[in-house]
Description:
The chain is α/β, with parallel strands linked by helices. It contains eleven helices and ten strands. The chain has helices at about 30-35, 45-65, 80-85, 85-95, 115-130, 145-155, 185-190, 205-225, 235, 240-250, 265-270, and strands spanning about 20-25, 75, 95-100, 135-140, 160, 170-175, 175-180, 225-230, 260, 280. The strands form three sheets. Strands 1, 2, 3, 8 and 9 form a five-stranded parallel sheet that branches. The longest helix has 23 residues, at about 45-65. The mean pLDDT is about 95. The site of zinc ion (ZN) has 5 residues, from loops.
Amino acid sequence: MSTPQQPQRYTWPDGMKSACCISVDVDAEAPYLWARRAGMTPFIGQLEQRRFGPRVGIGRLFDLLASVDIRGSFFLPAAVAELHPDIAPAIVGRGHELALHGYFHESPTDTEEAEFEDALDASIDRLLAQTGVRPAGFRSPGWEMTRPMLAALAARGLAYDSSLMGFEHPYEIDNVVEIPVHWQLDDAVHFKFLGGGGDRWPPASTRAVGESWHAEWQAHHETGGLFMITVHPWIIGRAARIAMLRDLLSRLREVPDVWWASAAQIAEFHRSSSNAGRFAVESAPPPGIGPRRFKRN
Ligand SMILES: [Zn+2]
């Protein structure tokens, strides 16, 4: 496809105007362990904050999604599956999608290519062994990707990636179906607060985030986009935030022409629909245009 151009409208199934997907990144302790892979410290404050997710938050999310009859997509680092072997079966048992999110939530910016592939294979093996279901999709920790990472997903026959934001609806990048995300719709951006002086802004008010997300949904609905929320049980699982999400989802569930689907269902639809190939892009920068310095002689 060429640019610039008139934005093309995405076509959703059964004449639906837009789509919604609730994605849950079950990070829990995994990013903390990855950040301390050179050696643990004696401090347990952040660990306890993160363990709130498996202890309380995920159960609240299960109840909320059941009450509004939504099938979510749960991206589970394999280390969290290893630490909490009941989580993956619970996700599948409640009819949600179970998908990949690294082993130790390895950041792509400090992971070797071979290490990424080994972690990916080990993650597939662990989730498959715990549930009997082979995950169809991958979400990169920190939402960073590389060309080799996309190629590694394709080589393993995975149906989609969900880490990038090149469109507001599904597309293909390097022939991998991309189910896009959006920072504004990530609870961590608004609420994550670790303490200890390292945070750059205070947690947002739940009311403000609820209003912002509703406005985001309205705009996505008008333009025919995919409204993909990303939440983390240790962050969104706090009582007032769950109440905010319940209000929002209850409201949105009353709108008739919205397709609610898991990321895997959306990827499957994309491949088999008239949208396939209409939004295909390559990740490589155009040849001949690289970074350069401007210097006066
Ligand atoms: Zn994550």
